[in-house]
Write a structure and sequence with these properties.
Keywords: Membrane, Signal, Transmembrane, Transmembrane helix. Pfam families: T4SS_pilin. The chain has about 120 residues and is mainly α. About 70% of the residues lie in helices and about 0% in strands. It contains four helices and no strands. The longest helix is centred in the C-terminal third of the chain and has 35 residues.
Length: about 120
């Protein structure tokens, strides 16, 4: 029940969004921009999020690849010891899961940013 309450609280925080009114020109009566100025600067090509993503995601991918290499080395140097092989398999599994999560995150965020801008 505690987990359910936590998930309900997190979902209400992430799923609720503020209503953003479009600014309109009183002479034309049409919206001038789909996003407020601060949000459009945030999601622009040279915005803050673009710079953060350009640093974090390649670094996370590099870390995953390094862990895959470390797991391969652990597996090769296990010399038939089942406990070392199991440790290497666990490391390899989690490194691949991490790499998949990073790639999916990049793809999902690109879709969201294209949808918003």
């Amino acid at each position: 029940m505690k987990i359910f309450k936590s998930l309900l609280t997190l979902s209400s925080v992430f799923l609720s969004s503020p209503v953003l009114a479009a600014q309109s020109d009183p002479m034309e009566g049409t919206p001038s921009s789909s996003l407020p100025p601060k949000l459009s600067a945030l999601f622009a090509e040279s915005g803050i999020l673009d710079r953060i993503f350009a640093i974090i995601f390649p670094l996370a991918g590099l870390i995953c690849v390094v862990f895959i290499i470390i797991a391969g080395y652990m597996w090769m140097s296990a010399a038939g010891d089942p406990s070392k092989i199991k440790t290497a398999q666990g490391t390899l599994t989690w490194a691949i899961i991490g790499l998949v999560v990073v790639l999916l995150t990049v793809a999902i965020l690109q879709v969201i940013i294209k949808f918003i801008s």
